[in-house]
């Protein structure tokens, strides 16, 4: 049925155990190398490594790949999140993104006319947490913020949703994936915002928000010698935002806090 001669079959039967024994010996060597190298080697690097260590004079990477698959010894690498040519396709077919409408004009004539937003990372001993915040450029007040254990669209959508409808207000951000996502762009349009985005790789286009996060960390987290818990970090940031808005005086505001400046002006 297979078109093989009987001698071929009997030769295979006589050497079956010998082949299994060779595979097992090779698998033990592969396992040893993987454990010493953080399970980072693929079949080609593994074959080169085994030859250099004297396991064999020559070793075909295809055989190594077969044995690695047979005994579950493949490298433990992160899986591809998107198809192979995903980013090339995006480059060839770019999505229409908002322009840099703000254009570093950080002066505002009234409240809730120009807003800037961004996300920063906060380290705790329970892992990283993510903070999204919105600043009003008129008085540098943090008008909305939220801290989450996960970087998600829900995080940035919720922060702007808390502001309510803002017809004609300009909101500026960088080109992070959350801010360029079609659902976020649609959400801003539904709320009446005019969206503005920094140029690629240009952090100065959102300097006010970057500066705030730097101040916040230097005046809170970097003064602590120990990592906090997630709940401890949330409380620390809550207390800081309240102090920043209500008590921290600023030269640009005539040495008033953002809230005092708003109350005096309105």
Descriptive notes:
- With 266 residues, the chain is an alpha/beta fold.
- It folds into 2 domains: 17-70; 114-265, Ribonuclease H-like superfamily/Ribonuclease H (Nucleotidyltransferase, domain 5, 2-Layer Sandwich).
- The protein has 10 helices and 5 strands.
- It has helices spanning 6-36, 43-52, 61-70, 86-92, 153-161, 177-180, 182-191, 207-219, 230-246, 258-265; strands spanning 114-124, 127-136, 141-148, 170-173, 194-197.
- The protein has a 5-stranded mixed beta sheet, with helices on both faces.
- Helix 2 packs across helix 3 and helix 5 (153-161) packs parallel to helix 7 (182-191).
- The longest helix has 31 residues, at 6-36.
- The chain is elongated and about 100 Å long.
- The mean pLDDT is 90.
SSE inventory with pairings:
Blueprint: H1 6-36, H2 43-52, H3 61-70, H4 86-92, E1 114-124, E2 127-136, E3 141-148, H5 153-161, E4 170-173, H6 177-180, H7 182-191, E5 194-197, H8 207-219, H9 230-246, H10 258-265
Parallel strand pairs: 1-4, 4-5
Antiparallel strand pairs: 1-2, 2-3
Helix pairs in contact: 2-3, 5-7
CATH homologous superfamily designation of the largest domain? Ribonuclease H-like superfamily/Ribonuclease H
H/E element sequence: HHHHEEEHEHHEHHH
Total DSSP helices? 10
Shape: elongated
Side-by-side strand order of the widest sheet: 3-2-1-4-5
Q: Strand share of the residues?
A: 5-15%
Q: So, CATH architecture of the largest domain?
A: 2-Layer Sandwich
The CATH class assignment of the largest domain is: Alpha Beta
Structural class: alpha/beta
Distance between the termini: 93 Å
What is the mean predicted local confidence, pLDDT?
90
Helix % is 40-55%
Strand count, sense and closure of the main sheet? 5 strands, mixed
Q: How many strand elements?
A: 5
Which residue ranges are poorly predicted, with pLDDT under 50 across at least 5 consecutive positions?
Answer: none
Number of domains: 2
- Rounded to an integer in angstroms, the radius of gyration calculated over CA atoms is 29 Å
CATH topology label of the largest domain: Nucleotidyltransferase, domain 5
């Amino acid at each position: 049925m297979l078109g093989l001669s009987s001698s071929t079959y009997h030769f295979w039967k006589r050497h079956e155990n010998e082949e299994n024994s060779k595979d097992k010996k090779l698998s033990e060597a592969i396992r040893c190398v993987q454990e010493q190298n953080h399970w980072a080697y693929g079949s080609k690097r593994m074959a080169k490594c085994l030859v250099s260590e004297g396991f064999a004079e020559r070793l075909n990477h295809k055989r190594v790949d077969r044995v690695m698959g047979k005994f579950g010894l493949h490298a433990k690498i992160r899986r591809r999140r998107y198809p192979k040519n995903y980013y090339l396709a995006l480059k060839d077919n770019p999505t229409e993104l908002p322009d840099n409408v703000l254009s570093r004009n950080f002066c505002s004539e009234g409240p809730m006319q120009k807003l800037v937003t961004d996300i920063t990372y906060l380290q705790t001993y329970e892992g990283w947490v993510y903070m999204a915040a919105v600043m009003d450029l008129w008085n540098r007040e943090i008008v909305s913020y939220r801290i989450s254990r996960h970087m998600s669209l829900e995080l940035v959508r919720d922060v702007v949703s808390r502001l309510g409808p803002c017809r004609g207000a300009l909101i500026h951000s960088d080109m992070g994936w959350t801010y360029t996502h079609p659902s976020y762009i649609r959400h801003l349009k539904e709320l009446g915002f005019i969206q503005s985005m920094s140029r690629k790789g240009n952090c100065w286009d959102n300097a006010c928000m970057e500066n705030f996060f730097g101040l916040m960390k230097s005046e809170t987290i970097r003064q602590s010698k120990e990592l906090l818990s997630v709940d401890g970090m949330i409380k620390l940031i809550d207390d800081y935002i309240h102090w920043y808005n209500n008590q921290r005086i600023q030269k640009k505001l005539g040495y008033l806090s953002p809230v005092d400046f708003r109350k005096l002006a309105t």
